[in-house]
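ok trying again, last paste got cut off:
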Amino acid sequence: MRDGAEDGGVTTARDNRRVKAAHDDERVTAARENARTEHTRSATERAAGIDGADVLERLLRGAWRDPDSGAFADPPPVSVAIEQSLAGREAPLVDSLRLGRRLAVVSDATTYEVMGRRVERALQTLGPLQPIVIERDPHADQAGVGRLRQATRDADALIAVGSGTINDLCKFAAAQDGKPYAVFATAPSMNGYTSTNAAITVDGHKKTLAAISARGVFMDLRVLCAAPQRMIRAGLGDSVCRSTAQADWLLSHLLLGTPYRRAPFDLLAPDEAALLDSADALVNGDVDAMRRLACTLVLSGLGMAMCGGSHPASQGEHLISHYIDMCAPPSRAGFFHGEQVAVATLTMAGLQQAMLERGPPTLRALSIDRAELSGRMGEELAQACWDEFRAKRFATDALPALNARISDHWDEWVAQLRSNMLPAARLEAALRRAGAPALCADIDLSSTFYAEAVSNARFTRNRYTFLDLVADTGQLDLIGH
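nice, full thing came through this time. structure:
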């Protein structure tokens, strides 16, 4: 029946389908247009020769506009120096922070030789100094934090000289004791120098805990260029996950309405392409390439601090890495966090791409309970993970509304997600140019254990990622994709 349709009369089901299709097309077009708009500023900045160093400078002096609010961004107050050499500037840099008279300079046996001795010698001119050199293989765990707090009980502030573990130990110990801290980086191996959280192992479970922001982050590019190549590759690995982390965080926002921000990703956009394209230069001592990586790591940490958590830089790929940390065979050789993240990022990128190539998924009622989790992971780890996982399980009566939401919006979500993602092949090419790990075998893991890690990683944290969507929609075949 068509009679009267033109003048407000009867409308057929076919008409409704046409109207819905037209609206769907409009939403997809709008999503694509919004995505193009989101990238306009970074493209313009690249065309104008603006790089990460320029963005960092503007951000720290309060002249960078937050794309989410339109106001000038307000990052944590931190002094950042990224220079070809900081020799002779150590004391003035620390003195300008007004940290107090009694400084504890914390390094380990390796970083002491790299830069610790030099920093100690320079800072002696500022007042009483307490040198602390931790054993050769320090661990960022409860016991390590306790020992450091006891050793620095009389200090006014901590000066970390190191990278991941030393930085995490110092920032968390300082936070616990209400003291400021600063860091001299000895390797570009991770993005935690400017973040306000620390990766600390608690009862065998690696957790991201609230800490404090460094008052000063000082990077001598000559020192960073001379760092072991594996640590440089680890820093690259901790940077390439921007794409997968953004896709996971955006998915959670679109499906569940959880908070999401563009700002941390816009900070990284000007340098991303050049960083990936010059990945081989990083391990060949190129100072300009190292400056890009250093700025990326610092800006990534500031992005996390601005968001009040690690969400923009730690999603499914980091959950896989955390599971590996907790459950890998004891006989396995040690690997840096960023090396594991590099491999996990390629896994997540491939999984995300494959998921988006399929039609709208349908969430199913799952029956995983505490007992099954214990069977999968062992009682001790299941106890640590259950509360995290339970918090994001869907109630059965919530599924119809969620599935209707997916069905109605899937095409526009796909367009929006794809606009922010980089192809897995692009990421893999950059990692391989730098000689970084790309396969589970490259990080001494069997394909059987790695598949277990990818399947079980989602249980470790209350963050909804593509790992959850794949499992919740019965598409676990994608894990081996």
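cool. The first strand starts at residue 79 and ends at 83. The chain has 20 helices and eight strands.
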